[in-house]
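Notes from hallway chat w/ T.B., transcribed later so I don't forget. T.B. wanted the structure written out for a chain they're using in a teaching module, and asked if we could keep both sequence and structure tokens in one place. Agreed to drop them here.
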Amino acid sequence: MHLDSPFVFALVAMEGPDPYSRVGGLATRLQGLAEALVHRGITTHHFFIGDPGAPAIESRAGGLLFYHRWAQWLSAHHSGGVYDGEDAKAADLAQSLPESILEGVIEPAVAANRLPVVLAEEWQTTAFLIRLDELLRLRGLRDRVVTFWNANNPYGFDRIDWQALTAATRPLAVSRFMWSILRARGIDSVVIPNGLPGRLIGNEPDGMALRRLGQKQRWRTIFFKMARWEREKGWGQALDAMAELSHRGRAATLVARAGGSVGKGEALAGAAAHRGLEVVELSDSSGGPTHQLERITAVKADVVNLRFPVSEPLARLLFAGTGGVLANSIMEPFGLVGLEAMAAGGVVFTGGTGEDYAVDDLNAVVLKSTNPGEIADRALALRANPERVAALRSEAKRTASGFTWDATVDRLLSLAERRREE
């Protein structure tokens, strides 16, 4: 840990660490960034739309990390999660947060001769950044503060005042894919990719559990897919691939966890049954990850629908031990799940949009189409070539080791220093 850091960070986004606030990769990104910043000894404030029943402000990590749960008065009337009442919550961020963050974070940091860095995420924070820029100029502080806006997803781009935003802050992008989408709008950005916690690098999952899982795959291939239940996440292609393998007489099982604000499990089960696939639902999450894995892989069905949150240890076992991790999004801005699976040595099938880290037939299977037969063909070819599978797993781990949150923070701090000097 580096003490007496010259930086103070404020992270602003809709999502955060509360179950109420977690939907997808954005919450994971913010948690990873916050942990890496705090590890450097950098005081970090995370502003998010939080659980209305939790404390408005919560101190963590010995006073280095502060959770600020914003718009709780709105969340109390929107029980459906962080994006329930999205427009009203985004408006509240723009109206009430700029002055609060200026007086509570920025001015004290400047007074202590530190550099405040504000990093805001997604379209819902753009009006906040524009208003914050106005206040900073009014108070003569604009050259003492660095602000960034990060694009994780093109959702909501039609609602952004791009001219005002680019005048107020510096846009970032999580991948070359997002960079190109911004570039098509005439917006220049800097690519700073997501990362992984250091604990995932070189930390091998339980070898005995993996060997038992491998033995169970002598007669069938087990696939794993964990994503929000949304069309662009490739659920249709994954289920169709299971049906295709069954049609070819090849035994296969998809272990599936459909998450997100609308991922209740019913839609997944219905979609699988519609394809003639046998579905077994598991809701018992008792026991540790090894026990859970044994229970999951004991099921003989086309689809095992997990109706409980998948812990990191269980996910790593499934990443490392299954015949394929289907991170096959139709449109993926970055793909943290795919990178996490590669860190565990998984054989990852990606869709080939924002997954800059995936190189076909080197460290992953990069699908060239949405045809479910392609998943079936590639999976069967790999099953017949264990040496190729071993090489893919090894290179996947090597690649993932280059993507850490520490490396992401290094890039952010370097860019912040350059922005201050401009």
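Follow-up for T.B.: The chain has a mean pLDDT of 94. Might be a good example for the class.
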